[in-house]
Amino acid sequence: MPATILVGTQWGDEGKGKATDLLGDRMDLVVRYQGGNNAGHTVRAGEHTLKLHLVPSAILSPGVTPVIADGVVVDPGVLLEEMDELEARGIDTSRLLVSANAHLIMPYHLELDRVTERYLGRNRLGTTKRGIGPAYADKATRIGLRVQDLTDEKIFREKLEVVLKEKNAILSRVYNRLPLRADDIVRDYLGYGERLAPHIADTSAVLYRALREGKRVLLEGAQGTLLDLDHGTYPFVTSSNPVAGGALVGTGLGPKEVDRVIGVTKAYVTRVGSGPFPTEDEGQAGARMQDRGQEFGTTTGRRRRCGWFDAVLLRYAARVNGLTELFLTKLDVLSGLRSVKVCVAYRYEGAVFEDVPPHQSIVHRAEPVYEELEGWPEELSEARGVDDLPPAARKYVERLADLGDVPVGTVSVGPSREQTVEVGL
Ligand code: IMP
Questions:
Q1: Does residue 295 have its Cβ closer than 6 Å to ligand 1?
Q2: Cβ atoms of residues 70 and 250 within 8 Å
Q3: Domain coordinates in residue numbering, the chain
Q4: pLDDT in tens, 403-416
Q5: Which residue puts its alpha carbon closest to atom 12 of ligand 1?
Q6: What is the pLDDT of residues 30-74, one digit of tens each?
Q7: Residue 13 designated active-site
């Protein structure tokens, strides 16, 4: 049975947590394929609410195996902390699998993420400072340490000592920071390795076998299309590939293993960190979205920038991911507006762009061309079927599907599982 990919179509924070929660329950394995603890979603565990950054939220569904695949960068201390928190709330984490090939976030990655952002000053990227970029950089430079290295002291120490020589020189001579001690890192990381050992696996082989056995597999992307290293608004991106293609590389599965690509799309747009955002609204409408949508980052608590729906970006996301359907989230947040705007194209120096302009500086300076649709005063949080949506809201959803040329499969009208409308528009 082919796998399903779930990907964010915007700058992350589209509400993938809700979509994964809903779909994940119908799956046998739920897999994270890229990113690290820069992502985050809030989950309910019994009485408690907790924030997960690394462990797939499928950990809460007893029949589902959560997998952290090859393309993820793992901060093992953070991973174990999350597992401990879950265990403390009575949630069994023994099923969790972590790829032996996943790269490790090391203490010098955290340190370098912080100091380089400071060094960039007003040109900073606004990273989450979790060491993500430096860890992926070392992976590409081929000096990264991997999860499997945690189980072999000799190899771990050998690799670390080579890397640390360079990192310490940079930290102390360029950034005036104290050097890090190899012994401290070896002690901490081998301790993590001991605890993680039962979870370490060849996850690519596990997934391949599971698909052969007819199991249902969901490949869950973190962040979103526009934060993709190759296809996002570079350089204001993350250092991995959230797009659907990244799911194949990040898991070690071939393209024929997937037949469904769900794009999670928020009914308006948000972004944290720096970078272009053509439909950003710094006025009342944006403030209203921020407030009603509770738009604060799960990982850093930062206020998210808000703006109108951007169909140029949706078309782009549909193309680069090969989306087969949309999961539209937070439609309820837009209730009460007299009219709702949708950006259908960009205008720059007299030229109109219906697709993302080929040069980044045009994206920075482009003016959105808006279509204005009728708003709806009704609250939507009780809607459970298409007929419960007021005509104006339904028209809005239909228009987005039309502009993106992708059918909308599901509309979410609130955080709980029940607050969901299956549409198939
Ligand atoms: P990094 O991934 O920490 O290197 O940050 C790079 C950019 O991606 C910054 O603009 C971050 O705000 C953004 N980013 C990283 N993870 C997320 C996420 O899960 N949601 C939204 N933005 C993110």
A1: no
A2: yes
A3: 3-99+202-261, 103-196, 266-422
A4: 999 999 999 999 98
A5: 273
A6: 999 999 999 888 777 667 777 899 999 889 888 999 999 999 999
A7: yes
